[in-house]
Amino acid sequence: MTVLVEATSVIVRREATDVGLDGGWAHFQDIVPNQTLCTDGELARVGFMTPSDTEGFVKRLEHDGLTYHDGEKAIDLVIVDQDGGPKLRVDWLNVVRFDFDDGQTVVTACYLLDGSPAPDSRTDWLSAPEGWAFEGSISQRRSVHRVDEHDEVVLIDRRDGVDVYRELATGREVYCGRTRPVSVDVAASRDWIETHTARWSPCATCAHMEGGSDACKAFPGGIPASILNANLAEKTTDLRDTCRAYSPRDGD
């Protein structure tokens, strides 16, 4: 199975909510601050449109017992961008793009590498929030405005959980879905996410990587920058399109 990835998504290992989270899965569902939760039984996904909301939820999960990362790679959860992929090295997750039956409708999704077999282009494998439809979704628009304190915008209205801003330069209205406040104090800042990120590359799930290090058997002289700096927008569901030497680990 796979779970939907739209805007900025916090992806959590479902098993971790039972083992590491105070209160388990029931508590996880209680603290989800919006209506974007979906799960395939192996992963859970919650979506956000602002760095501060993302930060607040991740800090709440850490406060309640989960581990975001160990300084090098994601442990129980990871932030995944719709276009840029995972924000940290993660060896238990793969991000793919789904083609619907018409060959033109594309959504971003992810699945647990140690879980169910990797999907083909079957939309019935996609887990999305209740009521979600491609028509009118962020996936259809392929763009989303993420508002933070660095943007030159002014808040002009709030409508049913959506903040409405006006861009000072153009006068254009932009819309940003917000979440209910979490109980852990956070400093609202895009910079928090930037300091907790490392660019994704196919190396995270490749058999040539040696024992969790950054050394690659296929490139003893060093991994080319074009591979290390690859992001989701530059790759397809076949990671060999990004790295000719890519070889999935056993069971991937």
- Which value, in Å, is the CA radius of gyration? 18 Å
Helix/strand class: alpha+beta
Low-confidence regions = 181-199, 232-236
Average predicted confidence as pLDDT = 75
Going across the biggest sheet, name each strand in turn. 3-4-2-5-6
Distance between the termini: 14 Å
- How many structural domains? 2
Walk me through the structure.
The structure is a single chain. The protein has 252 residues and is of the alpha+beta class. It folds into two domains: 2-141 and 187-195, no CATH class; 201-252, no CATH class. The protein is built from six helices and twelve strands. It has a five-stranded antiparallel β-sheet with strand order 3-4-2-5-6. A four-stranded mixed β-sheet has the order 7-8-1-9, with no helix packed on it. Strands 10-11-12 form a three-stranded antiparallel β-sheet, with no helix packed on it. The longest helix has 13 residues, at 51-63. The protein starts with a strand and ends in a 24-residue tail after the last helix.
Can you give me a brief rundown of this structure?
This protein is α+β, with helices and mostly antiparallel strands and 252 residues long. The chain folds into two domains: 2-141 and 187-195, no CATH class; 201-252, no CATH class.
